[in-house]
Specification:
By secondary structure, the chain is α/β, with parallel strands linked by helices. The chain has one domain: Phosphoglycerate mutase-like (Rossmann fold), CATH 3.40.50.1240. It has seven helices and six strands, in the order E-H-H-E-H-E-H-H-H-E-H-E-E. Strands 3-2-4-1-5-6 form a six-stranded mixed beta sheet. Helix 6 packs across helix 7. The chain starts with 7 loop residues before the first strand and ends with a strand.
């Protein structure tokens, strides 16, 4: 008897906020979407509407919840605290350039954040999400945040947390994690780009 294929994950990064537009690190600060972010989230609905999800998980932060709602999946969504964005601690609200003034060469995926989370702590959270996805059948939608989803993709394909820096991810985009002959793989990344 054939076993069902392993579950896949569709990652949806939330739409634009004022801080994402200006490059400020937005961890636990609970910002809403901008008007552009709302429009982009609505434009995800036709693509996501063609897919059948066995489970929809969403970060509890409002920018992810709004994106989920505007993309048409709020009724099926369950809030998942492990999908909240990185806790940036002392770096919350700062741009990369501002952080580098005091920490030259800083990289969140390698160095973490003073007063916030380390890459290993975030990896523990995304590993729990991945285990939950892989316990499902079908396709699981995950509405979350840029740095968190980049680290999740790295962990999906067996890489260390630092390698999350290799995956660029724009707001209001869709990425698809799947398998190639049983090997966890990236099927699509950072698409479609919505103006």
């Amino acid at each position: 008897m054939n076993s069902p294929p392993p579950a896949e994950a569709v990652l949806i990064r939330h739409g634009e906020t004022t801080w994402s537009r200006s490059g400020r690190h937005t961890g636990l600060t609970d910002l809403p979407l901008t008007g552009n972010g709302e429009r982009a989230a609505r434009q995800l609905a036709p693509h996501l509407g063609r897919m059948r999800f066995s489970l929809v998980l969403c970060s509890p932060l409002q920018r992810a919840r709004q994106t989920c709602e505007l993309a048409g999946l709020a009724e099926a969504a369950q809030l998942e605290p492990d999908l909240r964005e990185w806790n940036y601690g002392e770096y919350e609200g700062l741009t990369h350039e501002q952080i580098e003034e005091g920490a030259p060469g800083w990289l969140v995926f390698r160095d973490g954040c003073p007063g916030g989370e380390s890459p290993e702590q975030v990896a523990e959270r995304v590993d729990r999400v991945i285990a939950r996805v892989r316990a499902e059948e079908g396709i699981v939608a995950l509405f979350a945040h840029g740095h968190l989803l980049r680290l999740l993709a790295a962990r999906w394909i067996g890489l260390e947390p630092e390698q999350g820096g290799r995956f660029l991810l724009d707001t209001a985009t869709i990425s698809h994690l799947s398998y190639y002959q049983g090997i966890p793989s990236l099927k699509h990344w950072n698409a479609p780009l919505v103006p």
